[in-house]
Recover the amino acids of this structure.
């Protein structure tokens, strides 16, 4: 068995003590008690040093505290830098002699005839141009419009030319129709223009040769507000020239200072030639033409992917012969097709 200490029997001296006092004596709790606090505490020591005693008979001079001075907020005038005023950019002008458009040829090919009867085709392209012009009011880059199609034979030149003719009919707009199908240009032929007044070539000539002024390549027509820029001389590096810095500068210059000018690019088919995808980088909106009962869905999806650098792509269904609502523009005016 373990040894146990005997319980201390309280003595006579401790009989009057309380249980806590007995426990304190038994377990030596006195060491944990707080030390006694003296009645007279020492005065606190000043951190700034002891005050000097004044000589006897001389009263100490009162300490005058310096008045706190509040400084008024500084009123510094920060002059804003004067805005840099740049001279307005003069719009590019096309002063070539006017050439006559063959209106009879336009009618034979089924195009819009300026000054002619109100037809279904004219009314439909009025709706198309309204959407295009509305987008151009929101962005200067949207003044440049690319017209393309997935494959050949779907009517992209037909739509590009009719859209340009419809915009030329606006009272406060002008349009530059650019033939950007360098391999197979056709815009001059469609309009019956010879391009004889065009002595400097066309778009590709201005891109390959910095000495060629693009405004000198533009053909002015006898239709008010309609101008044509031929394709020019085709090269084996058309796509590379279109991707150059000079192309961006030249195409930007076409619309600078001319907010009422629209530029319509008739490009090659997107799936047949690469220039369409390069031109899509320089325009603000694209009209992708699909021919009813001809253009396949996979071809449309591939073309949309190639032209995806342009964020605003509109789809135009060409040669549609059926309207679910029975709509037939032009018949209201007594004309029809």
């Amino acid at each position: 068995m373990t040894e146990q200490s005997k319980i201390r029997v309280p003595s006579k001296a401790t009989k009057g003590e309380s249980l806590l006092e007995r426990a304190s004596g038994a377990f030596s709790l006195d060491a944990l008690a707080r030390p006694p606090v003296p009645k007279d505490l020492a005065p606190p020591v000043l951190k700034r040093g002891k005050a000097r005693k004044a000589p006897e008979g001389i009263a100490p001079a009162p300490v005058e505290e310096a008045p706190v001075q509040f400084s008024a907020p500084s009123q510094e005038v920060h002059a804003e830098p004067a805005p840099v005023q740049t001279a307005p950019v003069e719009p590019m002008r096309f002063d070539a002699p006017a050439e006559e458009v063959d209106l009879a040829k336009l009618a034979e090919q089924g195009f819009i005839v300026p000054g002619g009867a109100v037809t279904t085709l004219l009314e439909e392209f009025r709706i198309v141009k309204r959407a295009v012009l509305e987008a151009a009011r929101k962005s200067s880059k949207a003044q440049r419009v690319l017209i393309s199609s997935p494959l050949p034979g779907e009517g992209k030149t037909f739509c590009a030319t009719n859209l340009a003719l419809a915009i030329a009919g606006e009272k406060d707009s002008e349009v530059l129709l650019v033939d950007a199908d360098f391999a197979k240009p056709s815009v001059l032929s469609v309009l019956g223009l010879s391009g004889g007044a065009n002595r400097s070539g066309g778009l590709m000539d201005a891109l390959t040769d910095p000495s060629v002024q693009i405004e000198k390549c533009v053909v002015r027509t006898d239709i008010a507000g309609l101008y044509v820029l031929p394709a020019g001389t085709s090269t084996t590096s058309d796509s590379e020239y279109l991707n150059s810095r000079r192309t961006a500068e030249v195409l930007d210059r076409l619309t600078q200072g001319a907010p009422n000018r629209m530029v319509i690019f008739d490009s090659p088919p997107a799936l047949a030639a690469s220039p369409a995808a390069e031109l899509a980088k320089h325009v603000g909106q694209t009209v992708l033409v699909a021919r009813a009962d001809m253009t396949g869905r996979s071809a449309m999806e591939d073309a949309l992917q190639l032209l995806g650098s342009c964020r605003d792509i509109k789809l135009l269904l060409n040669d549609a012969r059926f309207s679910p609502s029975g709509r037939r523009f032009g018949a209201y005016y007594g004309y029809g097709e």
